[in-house]
Queue: 4 jobs
Job 1
Amino acid sequence: MTTQKDSDLRPEVIKVCRQLYNKGLIAAADGNVSVRLSGGDVLITPSGMHKGFLNESDLVVVDSEGHVLNGSGRPSSELVMHTAIYRQDPVTTAVVHTHPPWTLALSLSDNELLPHLLIEGKMFLGEVTTVPFEMPGTEDLARAVVGALHKGPAQILAHHGAVTRGPSLWKAFELMECLEHTSRITALAKMLGEPMPLPEGKI
């Protein structure tokens, strides 16, 4: 598992948040990003602040149980989900949660995301499951997400958003970007006709 220092990761978290905002994956105070630090503490974005305009000093450090160790703001309202993922999966060092428009649109319209349409989706996303709706920020949601971790690195949260995790911060970001890109292509293909899956026996 790759771990890094707080001081090394703060600027990277800010860069990821700005990329998420610039790509339309979050709006206003939506979404949250966290990284596991050396020793098991977690660096996480604050609650109620616009993620596209955060400063390094806005980030909050908590221990593995969610107790604040450093920072003047409140940690993300989804802290319980982040810490639950880290406890369940020792390989994960970063978690990204957003409200991606194309992914949510497919989910809300009862259309299935089809990662097998694209080789990139099949290779990087694998099976993408939809976690049944639970209220944001609750233990119930955290348990539902943790229960689906074995299926792949990306989950859609019904009527809510999506969460990705990875062995590095940028890998978790790339998975979220890939999820939304695949969702957009899936939606556009469905608008034009019946999508064609990857040819069997070629993979």
Job 2
Amino acid sequence: MLAHGFARFRCGACGTDRLVAFSCKGRGFCPSCGGRRMTERAAHLIDHVLPRTPVRQWVLSLPFELRYRLAWDHKLCRAVLAVYTRALLGFYRKRAKASGHRDGRTGTVTVIQRFGGALNLNVHFHTLAVDGVFVREPDGSLSFAAAKAPTDDEVEALLGVIRKRVLRLLVRRDTR
């Protein structure tokens, strides 16, 4: 809605004008409002949620048939997200244990994205994971043990675990 402010862009070559609203003040899809919310959420995560440690982004894309189901079945979407998150947290714990860090704990933040680049229906998960584990020291303090970058084989194995567990979930729910 232009009544709430706008910017005018003009092509220097052809002179074509375009008006872009600063805010729509509505409930529909607005690039200005969406961009502002994305920036605010990122700042909140950096300033108040994520610890000052390395963070790795993980993205789980799903088969086409499952994307549609997750878009309409929110309980199933949450269940698939829980399977994925447990597998990812277990991946970090297992790697930490192999490096001599017992009882390590890590954390994640996930955003469920419902569309692709062409605004097509494409449910997938964007996850920020603390890239390592926190370990309790004998004096009670916490120390952070950073993880090394995962190998292609480790990522493939993690994906295999997620796939197996999601298929098991679907069979249990009889939605295959």
Job 3
Amino acid sequence: GLDLIDFYVLPHYLTAPFKKVTEKIMTEFSDLNLCPINNRQGIVIDGEGSKVICKD
């Protein structure tokens, strides 16, 4: 990777038809630094870090 982030993005979190599988991933990989986002969210990365943004 580009080494810009120190976490793994989990897209489609709790969004149909991925609700059950994303819940399972969060449970089974709880030792990893996961950043779950749903279909209305994105991640902004800049020189100061990262943040999750949401489309209203």
Job 4
Amino acid sequence: GNERPDTFVYDPDDPVPTLGGNNLITPPGVFDQTPAEQRGDVLCYTSEPLAKELEVTGPISVTLWATSSAIDTDFTAKLCDVRPDGYVQNLQDGIIRARYRNSLLEQEMMTPGQSYEFTIDLWATSHVFKPGHRIRLDISSSNFPHFDRNPNTGNPIHTETELVPARQTVFHDVNRPSCITLPVIPR
């Protein structure tokens, strides 16, 4: 359709904290994502309650159309299962560093304000969403310390001391159709 884009400000000095997941840095596993989702720098896209079971098995990816006020930034995605009682269970997450959007071997900075298509790999999983549950996709620019924070300057990440907030815009219209690809298994 002709939907308006969503915006948020990513401040690398105040990154979204990692809550569980597949990592070795913080406690891993299933955690309620509600505290992270209540921040102003996390966009949540939620389905209607499911009428019947939905099995998702295989690789998951997010196509994200976005702009940034920075020449380099990150975009993160997290797939969640929202239970009828409101508990938001993390399932899979992933990240794309904008400078590596086209190649991991060659850095390419962005032009601030120009829209780009990003692919975020959420890897593979197998999960059955139960009736009454909802599918949720969280979009942000950080998930720290699971992923290093991006200072948004374009300089080397591990030696940069300057941190610059970035205004991020996510599109989901007919010309820039952001979406998630779920491998649904017929039941």
